[in-house]
């Protein structure tokens, strides 16, 4: 997966208000139309982990976990979509297995809603 890097891309996904959630994460998504967007050739991922999750070391740990899990489950997503994974404060204390299950479930829900 490529990364969402610009603020404009993040805001574009978040303003659409299409989301699915779990106990520790919220997945905001935007399915792109390949005819209208040149950037629509790949899935792109953005991470939003605020200071409410914890100090810098904790936030970076959560981000590393999210990146690994997103790579593991990206095959479930539609071909042309942008995803922003937002961590809830409880994500800092969640187990890796719990986050794995939640992301798999949320990505499957995104795929079903995108059809």
TrEMBL record:
Catalytic reaction annotation: Endonucleolytic cleavage of RNA, removing 5'-extranucleotides from tRNA precursor
Task performed by this protein: RNaseP catalyzes the removal of the 5'-leader sequence from pre-tRNA to produce the mature 5'-terminus. It can also cleave other RNA substrates such as 4.5S RNA. The protein component plays an auxiliary but essential role in vivo by binding to the 5'-leader sequence and broadening the substrate specificity of the ribozyme.
Quaternary state and interactors: Consists of a catalytic RNA component (M1 or rnpB) and a protein subunit.
Molecular function in Gene Ontology: ribonuclease P activity
InterPro entries to which the protein is assigned, alphabetical: Ribosomal_Su5_D2-typ_SF, Ribsml_uS5_D2-typ_fold_subgr, RNase_P
Alphabetized UniProt keyword annotations: Endonuclease, Hydrolase, Nuclease, RNA-binding, tRNA processing
Full protein name: Ribonuclease P protein component
Enzyme class of the recorded protein, top EC level: hydrolase
RNA-binding as UniProt keyword: yes
Coiled coil: none
Family statement: Belongs to the RnpA family.
E.C. code: 3.1.26.5
Keyword presence, Nuclease: yes
């Amino acid at each position: 997966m490529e990364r969402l890097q610009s603020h404009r891309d993040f805001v574009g996904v978040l303003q659409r208000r299409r989301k699915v959630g779990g106990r520790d994460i919220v997945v905001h998504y935007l399915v792109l139309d390949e005819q209208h967007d040149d950037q629509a050739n790949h899935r792109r991922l953005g991470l939003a982990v605020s200071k409410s999750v914890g100090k810098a070391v904790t936030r970076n740990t959560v981000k590393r976990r999210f990146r690994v899990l997103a790579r593991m489950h990206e095959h479930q997503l539609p071909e042309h979509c942008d995803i922003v994974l937002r961590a809830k404060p409880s994500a800092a204390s969640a187990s890796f297995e719990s986050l794995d299950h939640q992301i798999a479930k949320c990505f499957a829900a995104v795929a079903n809603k995108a059809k």
